[in-house]
Amino acid sequence: MNRILTALQPSGILHIGNLFGAIEPMVGLQSDENENLLFAVDYHAITVPQKPAELRRNILFATATYLAVGIDPTKTILFQQSRVSEHTELAWILNCIAHMGELERMTQFKDKSQGNDLSVSVGLFDYPVLMASDILLYDTNVVPVGADQKQHVELARDLAERFNNRFGETFVVPTPQIRKEGARIMGLDDPEKKMSKSATSEKNYISIMDDEATVLKKIKSAVTDSQSTIMYDEKRKGLANLLTIYSLVTNTHVNQIASEYEGKGYGDFKVGLAEAISDYLTPLQEKIKGYLANEDELINILDQGAQRAKAIASKKMEVVRQKIGVQL
Ligand code: ATP
Ligand code: LTN
């Protein structure tokens, strides 16, 4: 049996990069041969300031979205990180074997702390260690993530190996799984950087909840180039990104889409793309709203998930405590 695990921050909006890079791959991996875990990492979210009422809403929204996309809570253990206290307990122990130097090298920290801002939280610096504990606690084999998270999964591997060398075989060394298409959807306003919800402009991303008019406006303003043919060419980064999105929402190969636009220009292409995105998102949005209308049911699903996760995590922590010598 393969244990597959991933997690997302419940921080406000989810964009189509999160959807195709992280959530959808988890749906495809649900099967009787795998044991899957998916959770909202609320303790990661608070590494930057959060308003309590919003955080609560975002946890429910994230859960509703996973269910709407096709996560089946009978096949996937669906829960909320903060409900399984073993995550933070193991993070402390891993903190004591992690090196300052390896955390300082993490590009996400460097990006988010903007170099040397000393007022960022200690939690933001320590974020990858909590992520390593999320993964190692469950003897995870495979971690599907977008390309930006590969470095964090590699830290989890290093910490697993270091712990195993020091205290004897304890943790499974996990493998990151980076999907080829969709692993890195780029920003609409800047195709050099990944689409990101913390981007300064809303024109950077398509939110899962954007309505038709907003999608059209954002796609129309997406950065492309001055050439006139629609074809897939990695060097034409803006267009390549839009074709990738088109391909993901229609489940059609990029070359086929390009051939449908032979002789046509960016104007037609962008209108077609915006329509295809909305056709994909509208039914999803209806489903999300349906789940959100029944909050008790969502909370009930999360409760059950937490119980199942806790059963695995608490056993693992007993082993870890024994290995390090604190279990009397
Ligand atoms: P932020 O930019 O604020 O860090 P984010 O949009 O990157 O947020 P995360 O919560 O960090 O979102 O990421 C959730 C998951 O979505 C991760 O697995 C990440 O790799 C994936 N992901 C994020 N952005 C993209 C993207 N542009 N393309 C593909 N996958 C992405
Ligand atoms: N850092 C990840 C979220 C995350 C995660 C994890 C992903 C926290 N813990 C464990 C995979 C496995 C991100 O998406 N930004």
From TrEMBL:
The keyword Electron transport does not apply. It comes from Candidatus Uhrbacteria bacterium CG10_big_fil_rev_8_21_14_0_10_48_16. Homodimer. One of its GO terms (molecular function) is tryptophan-tRNA ligase activity. A motif ('KMSKS' region) lies at residues 194-198. This is Tryptophan--tRNA ligase. InterPro entries: aa-tRNA-synth_I_CS, aa-tRNA-synth_Ic, Rossmann-like_a/b/a_fold, Trp-tRNA-ligase, Trp-tRNA-ligase_bac-type, Trp-tRNA_synthetase. ATP binds at residues 9-11, 17-18, 146-148, 185, 194-198. NCBIfam families: trpS. The lineage of its organism: Bacteria, Candidatus Uhriibacteriota. Pfam families: tRNA-synt_1b (PF00579). Keywords: Aminoacyl-tRNA synthetase, ATP-binding, Cytoplasm, Ligase, Nucleotide-binding, Protein biosynthesis.
